[in-house]
Design goal:
Strand order of the largest sheet: 3-2-4-7-1-8-11-10-9
Radius of gyration: 20 Å
Structural class: alpha/beta
Mean pLDDT: 94
Number of strands: 11
Strand content: 15-25%
Shape: globular
Low-confidence stretches: none
């Protein structure tokens, strides 16, 4: 019996950024409708639904009722933080291969931004709810993702000599890409290295532009078989390889914190599954909740030796639209929009299709996509490809 190959056939993106007046559930429903229409499908063709939201759990199984779907063979909600989106594609792909469902919509949505409220307040409630062992670090002021990732980045700096200037090159390069992405929140707002250094501290060593945006909106994908996708409206994006790696370091003393992420294991595993090597990858979409996260993921995927990520990204001609390494071509979470793992995943699909417009990369046969969650706790990798 031949193995059914999965593919992404539809992509739905709602308005993103400072968009108000809709609940996360409404954003999610809109994105699924857009993804089905993008694929050329009727909404009732969807027989599987996998959903996820931010930290407020607004996107739950009631999305089925919101969409009026009555013939589902697969229905579940997931939460693996920033690795969720890539994981949803993996589970949908396995469901297609097994025949559990044929046409699966996966969607991520959130609306943390509120009118007349600063971005910093968006995740404040989640940060202040620490309990148990987490309450010990919280009592010392280490209570938010910013402060915890700052510890990880500082460790990398101390071990390998990574500098703010090197992290700044990532921020500037991704801002350059964002100038070519009309959906980017920082479109038409260039950034220089001097402006990066002059921006205020958020949690040292992170400046403002080391940190991701906060965005409202939703993105959905349709996963089906490659054979079926070829008969639909859009160029199919093949799901060639996938893997997960979850170090389980939360609250545990370990020697690797800040130095190694799950990408070191899930990246090679996904490449093996795809029968692809790193030098065959044309485009890389990494999870960049912070500049540091992008750097350590590139290291762990093997684009340079461990500890040499800083010098690599600061090399002239390495990053940005004219660079040798095509990374986060839509501007990423730092300069485009922050829809957790859907940010790198959606841009990976856009690039693989060849629909990137002014930011389209010439070679886009193989695309590597990462998802990272917790504080380097959870990781998922995808290898996407074209026919």
């Amino acid at each position: 019996m031949s193995v059914v190959e999965p593919a992404i056939a539809g992509l739905g993106i709602t308005e993103l950024g400072k968009v108000y007046g809709k609940s996360a559930l409404q954003f999610a429903a809109d994105a699924v409708r857009l993804a089905a229409a993008d694929a050329g499908l009727d909404l009732q063709d969807v027989d599987g639904l996998i959903m996820s939201g931010g930290l407020t759990d607004q996107v739950s199984l009631n999305l089925q009722g919101e969409l009026g779907l009555q013939n589902l063979k697969l229905l579940t909600a997931m939460q693996a933080y920033g690795s969720t989106a890539a994981q949803m594609v993996q589970y949908a792909s396995m469901a297609v291969q097994s025949g559990t469902a044929d046409t699966i919509a996966i969607v991520w949505a959130d609306n943390p931004l509120k009118e007349r409220q600063g971005s910093s307040a968006s995740y404040a409630a989640a940060s202040s709810a620490a309990s148990g062992w987490r309450a010990i670090t919280a009592s010392n002021g280490i209570s938010s993702a910013n402060t915890m990732y700052a510890l990880a980045a500082r460790r990398h700096m101390q071990a390998y000599g990574t500098t703010n200037d090197q992290l700044g090159h990532i921020a500037v390069a991704q801002r350059e890409w964002a100038q070519r992405n009309p959906l980017a929140q920082f479109h038409d707002t260039p950034l220089t290295l001097e402006e990066y250094h002059a921006s205020r501290w958020i949690a040292e060593p992170f400046h403002l532009f080391d940190c991701c945006l906060v965005s409202n909106g939703a993105i959905a994908l349709i996963v089906t078989s490659l054979d079926r996708a070829r008969a639909l409206r859009q160029p199919p994006v093949r799901v060639l390889g996938w893997a997960q790696a979850h170090p389980g370091n939360t609250g545990v003393r370990n020697d690797d914190f800040g130095l190694v992420s799950g990408a070191a294991r899930s990246g090679p595993a996904a490449l093996r599954m795809a029968d692809t090597t790193l030098d065959e990858i044309d485009v890389v979409q990494v999870y960049d909740c912070y500049t540091y996260t992008a750097l350590i993921t590139l290291e762990d995927y093997g684009f340079c030796a461990k500890g040499e990520g800083g010098p690599m990204v600061a090399q002239p001609g390495m990053l940005g639209p004219n660079g040798r390494l095509k990374v986060n071509t839509g501007g990423g979470e730092l300069s485009a929009y922050y829809l957790w793992g859907m940010t790198p995943l959606s841009e990976g699909v856009i690039q693989a299709r060849g629909h990137g417009g002014a930011r389209q990369v010439e070679k886009h046969h193989r695309v590597l996509v990462s998802g990272n969650g917790g504080v380097l706790d959870y990781h998922a990798t995808l290898v996407l490809g074209t026919d």
